[in-house]
Amino acid sequence: MTLTCADDIHKALTVGEVAERSGVAVSALHFYEKKGLIQSSRSAGNQRRYHRDVLRRVAVIKVAQRIGIPLAEIAEALAELPDGRSPTARDWKRMSAKWRGHLDERINDLTVLRDQLNECIGCGCLSIKACRLRNPFDSLSEEGPGPHF
C-alpha cells in the first residue's frame, strides 16, 4: 500500500520523528508533555504519537524560551489555544505582544545592572554593606548605616 501526500499529512508522528524534525531532544519532548505544553496519544503498542500541530507548538516553546519566557508563562499562553490546532500568526502576535513587555522589563533590569557593574569596577570592594551588586535588596542602605526601625 502506497501512502499519498494527503495520507502522510494526517499520519501521527513518533517521538523520534518529532525530535528529528523539531531539533529538540526526546527527553525535552517528554518534559514538555509532563508540563502540559504538548500532548500525545498512545498507539495500540502504548507508544507516544503526536499530531503534526505539535511541531508548531514546539517551535513556539523554543522561541519563547530563547527570549527568556518562563515555561509557566508559555504553558499559560498555549493553554488558551484549542487542542489539536497549530498556533496561527494571530496567536503568535498576541503571545509575542504580551511577552514583549516582559522582555522590555528584563532589558531595563539588565541595563541598570550593567550601570551598577561599571560603578563597582572602580572600587572592586564587593562589600556587603556598601555594594549594590553584592547586596542588591538593601533599600535601607540609602538612609545610612545602622538600625532604622
Structural notes for this entry:
Helix content is 54%, strand content 3%. It has 6 helices and 2 strands. It has 149 residues and is mainly alpha-helical. It has a two-stranded antiparallel sheet with strand order 1-2.
Quick synopsis:
The chain is mainly alpha-helical. Helix content is 54%, strand content 3%.
Largest sheet: 2 strands, antiparallel
Specify the structural class: mainly alpha
Low-confidence runs of at least 5 consecutive residues:
none
Order of helices and strands: HHHEEHHH
Strand content: under 5%
Q: Given the structure, what is the number of helices? A: 6
The largest beta-sheet arranges its strands as 1-2
Silhouette: elongated
Total beta-strand segments: 2
User: What is the radius of gyration?
Assistant: 23 Å
- Helical content, roughly? 40-55%
Q: What do the pLDDT scores average to?
A: 81
The rounded distance between the terminal residues' Cα atoms is 82 Å
